Amino acid sequence: MTAEIEGTPAGSRLQDLAELVADTPRIVIDRRILQANIVRMANRAASAGVALRPHTKTHKMPQVARMAAEAGAVGVQVAKLGEAEVMADAGFDGILVAYPIVGDAKLARLAALARRTRITVSLDSATAAEGISRAMVAHGTSCRLLVEVDTGLHRIGVQPSEALALARTIDRLPAVELAGVLTHEGHIYTAAGDVAEMERMTQDACRVVLEIAARMRADGLAAPVVSVGSSGTARFGMAVPGITEVRPGTYVFNDLTQVQLGAACESDIAACVVATVVSRPAADWAVIDAGTKTLSSDQRIVRTSERSFGRLAAWPDTWIVRASEEHGVLGLAPDSPLKIGDRVAILPNHICSAVNLHDEVLVAEDGRIVDRWPVAARGRLQ
Amino acid sequence: MTAEIEGTPAGSRLQDLAELVADTPRIVIDRRILQANIVRMANRAASAGVALRPHTKTHKMPQVARMAAEAGAVGVQVAKLGEAEVMADAGFDGILVAYPIVGDAKLARLAALARRTRITVSLDSATAAEGISRAMVAHGTSCRLLVEVDTGLHRIGVQPSEALALARTIDRLPAVELAGVLTHEGHIYTAAGDVAEMERMTQDACRVVLEIAARMRADGLAAPVVSVGSSGTARFGMAVPGITEVRPGTYVFNDLTQVQLGAACESDIAACVVATVVSRPAADWAVIDAGTKTLSSDQRIVRTSERSFGRLAAWPDTWIVRASEEHGVLGLAPDSPLKIGDRVAILPNHICSAVNLHDEVLVAEDGRIVDRWPVAARGRLQ
Q1: Residue A250: Cβ within 10 Å count
Q2: Residue A124 near residue B293 (C-beta atoms within 8 A)
Q3: Is A213 helix (H, G, I), strand (E, B) or coil?
Q4: Is the complex ipTM higher than 0.85?
Q5: A327: which chain B residues are within 8 Å (Cβ-Cβ)?
Q6: DSSP H stretches of helix in chain B
């Protein structure tokens, strides 16, 4: 079910939410669209015969993770141990910590987690693998490890030529089980707007990890998991034979970046920031009470000559053209009717960074606020 | 007292803090440098005969505001009501809410604040002034109002030609007292690197507000306060005869932006983000566990061809050249000795945005962690 099916354009649907909020700035979630996004991705993954492991970094809320699990997700992915701890506390079993865990303090926390839930960690070095193995032995527990491969993002990940050697190292370590190979093909975002190129790049990334998995298996190593990521590319990755798991995150809410990527329509945006016009000092701009401490400074991925920090939902030509910490400056046509006191719904560039700035979100359904969810895993230690 | 006086270069001083932290990423404050920054600005203001009203948005911590008050600050400035409430709870009297307060929910909170502490609000419209006046009458209290003037930033602020009319409107309203004129000359940051031009622009901004104050007084209106802002320009503004108040914020901690502005030396940086190297997958980059959810996405104000999200304190050539939410990518020379597990101290581009992402900071002195301060006003409603 999408907004189109209901016959409501996204702009006025989100703008309607703006009037429900007692004070601003606040993030409001349209629960119906959230549910539709979650079900659509789960159905796609099920049709493709691929496991869906959503990334919780977007929302950091057990409520959203639970909705995804009820729709068929196999487990959760987290970006940091603090998020894993919150999800484990909320009863989630089968957590992928997609981050190399390094250092004694974190290793002790990881081992404590592994004693109470099934943990998998992705990493790209023997150093990290050996540290985890030692911690698991010391605490009498175990976990699974995935070899993270750099397929072009040049962030975390061994180069493909070194993946087999790391897999062999992991296979020899005690208290850890080699589970396969993982990549995050985030470099595909550089091709935003060119769907064919994005698909080709995703297929290339999939081919790299599939070849590594094949070499691992030929070498007698276990590689049940071949996992690729990102909301922008999940639709391409799940169509590649041999891929066993996709890990999108942003798809639950969507944002202007996902729209730019062609991974969502504006009608699929489930979260907006509601703000109030606090100043209209000149004909061609107004100021709202949402700046970079509310929206983040994240820019649009396809850069234009103008910077922008988000767009009004109901006024497609009205952008936040400048922002400081608590001020967003709307570029306006001189005849814009916006005036002091008006409420506006903003489509954020990057909802993951925006949610991380808020301690709770409001949840709307059927024209009223029905719940408030704490952003439980916000502000947790890495 | 500055780091130079102690004979300790900033880089190794902050890098030494990195080893004191049990886990990363964390913000660590060097209390000695914080105290030196606070005392230096207070002494400058006292010498100039100008009131110092530091902006709490940088730190959001009553502990830091109290240090500034003990050094001679006349009160605090806040960017939002939630910060004012935290500072009032901590016992601060004389709070400048430098934001037009609009909407019933906020007006009720403002009136409640005005009943327990002396409140001044700066604003740029009759609409906002009338709303505040009505709320003060309804709650049987009062506050002071400042006319905010746009001296070039083009954010909040009436145009200079309209300032006198707004002052007259305020003067006629019940339960509010006209207190003068205010500007935030943040547009001066565009001249970063050209100290003479920054000084000239600051003097121009001061001239505009001084002329308005003179016209107000000639018209029989009260204008005891002529207030200008910003850490980058405080040293210029306080030297202009007739300016009664300066409102710097970032100077307590400083950051790479303040260094670029020439308002601080690196040895004056009192806050760093401590991170751990978690991956060294190639010769020319490493990954640390501090990304945009730890440092913010705020860029350097003087843009280079390369983006950057901060710099290592002890390695002046090593920048965070890319960042995603939980990853910072360090551009390295191939012979860099940095390896997995190493701790690094990062100089942030913009400390105000970084602090806002953390629930608490660690405080170091004499080679050990001596305190932890909650970022008490973080996450509060506007």
Answers
A1: 26
A2: no
A3: helix
A4: yes
A5: 155-156
A6: 3-6, 10-18, 31-48, 62-71, 81-89, 104-114, 126-138, 160-172, 195-218, 234-237, 256-261, 292-295, 351-355
Q: In this predicted model, what pLDDT tens digit does every residue of B114-156 receive, in sequence order? A: 999 999 999 999 999 999 999 999 999 999 999 999 999 999 9
DSSP tag of A284: T
Cβ–Cβ < 8 Å for B251, B264: yes
- CB nearest to A353's CB, from B80, B293, B327: B293
- Distance separating alpha carbons of residues B250 and B272, to the nearest angstrom: 13
Measured CA distances, B61 to A14, A289, B331 (Å): 35, 22, 34
Q: What dihedral do alpha carbons B351, B356, B358, B359 form, nearest 10°?
A: 140
CA B184 to chain A, closest CA, distance in angstroms equals: 12
Cα separation, B170 vs B175, whole angstroms: 10
Cβ distance A296 to B299 less than 8 Å, yes or no, reads no
For A138-186, the pLDDT digits (tens) are 999 999 999 999 999 999 999 999 999 999 999 999 999 999 999 999 9
How far is residue A113 from each of residues A81, A83, A203, B177, measured CA to CA in Å? 9, 11, 34, 59
Please tell me which of the candidates B281, B285, B359 has its beta carbon nearest to residue A124.
B281
A317, B40, B205, B257 from B155: Cα distances, Å: 19, 30, 14, 20
Distance between CA atoms of residues A145 and A169, nearest Å: 11
Map residue A121 onto helix, strand or coil. Answer: strand
CA dist., res. B80 & res. B103, Å (int): 13
Among candidate residues B225, B337, B193, B155, the one with its CA nearest the CA of residue A323: B155
Show the CA angle centred on residue B64, arms to residues B62 and B70, nearest 5°: 100
- Residue of A106, A124, A322 lying closest to B23 (CB–CB): A106
Q: Is the dihedral of CA B77, B98, B353, A231 positive or negative?
A: positive
Q: CA B185, CA B149: separation in Å to the nearest integer?
A: 10
Q: For domain A32-252, is the CATH number 3.20.20.10?
A: yes
Give the residue among B152, B101, B95 at the shortest CA–CA distance from B124: B101
Please answer yes or no on whether B105 and A23 come within 8 Å at the CB atom: yes
Q: Tell me the shortest Cα–Cα distance from B80 to chain A, in angstroms.
A: 8
pLDDT tens readout for residues B215-251: 999 999 999 999 998 999 999 999 999 999 999 999 9
CATH match of B32-250 with 3.20.20.10: yes
Confidence class for position A304, pLDDT limits 50, 70, 90: low
- A8, pLDDT greater than 60: no
pLDDT tens profile A58-83:
999 999 999 999 999 999 999 999 99
Rounded Cα distance, B244 and B44, in Å: 13
Instruction: Give chain A positions within 8 Å (CB) of B135.
Output: none
Nearest CA in chain B to A166: B281
Domain ranges of chain B: 32-250
pTM value is: 0.95
Q: Collect all residues of chain A within an 8 Å Cβ-Cβ radius of residue B130.
A: none
Contact A341 B287 (CB under 8 A): no
User: Given an 8 Å threshold on Cβ–Cβ distance, is B57 in contact with A326?
Assistant: yes
The 3-state DSSP class for residue B181 equals strand
Can you say whether residue A297 is alpha, beta or left, with left for phi > 0 and alpha for psi between -120 and 50 degrees? Answer: alpha
